[in-house]
Amino acid sequence: MTKDVGQVTDSANEQITQLEHRLDALLRVVERLRQENEMLRHTQEALNTERASLLEKNETARTRIEAMINRLKAMENH
After folding, report:
1. pLDDT average, residue stretch 36-63
2. DSSP states of 1-51
3. Rounded-to-integer distance, Cα 53 and Cα 43, Å
4. CA angle at 56 for the pair 52 and 62, rounded to the nearest 5°
5. Hey, CA dihedral for 55, 61, 65, 67, is it positive or negative?
6. Cα separation, 52 vs 45, whole angstroms
7. Does the pLDDT of residue 5 top 90, yes or no?
8. How many separate helices (H) and strands (E) can be counted in the chain?
9. Integer Cα distance of 10 and 72 in angstroms
10. Residue 73 confidence (pLDDT)
11. 71, exposed or middle or buried, with CB in 10 Å at 0-12, 13-18, 19+?
């Protein structure tokens, strides 16, 4: 009978060890995903900032080109 208890204990210990390994693996995945998510948030923030800057530069260029076109038209009329 003690042999049966010993086998059950060994089996339970083995299952606990397997669960510990799986939990460790899951914790590593969670940490990697957390780091990746943080990196992606920073990248998105940088891209949003760059986009805003490019939109502003585009608007400035459009305004300057429109002003040049208007000056050229005014020169043609004189």
Report:
1. 98
2. -HHHHHHHHHHHHHHHHHHHHHHHHHHHHHHHHHHHHHHHHHHHHHHHHHH
3. 15
4. 145
5. positive
6. 11
7. no
8. 1, 0
9. 91
10. 94
11. exposed
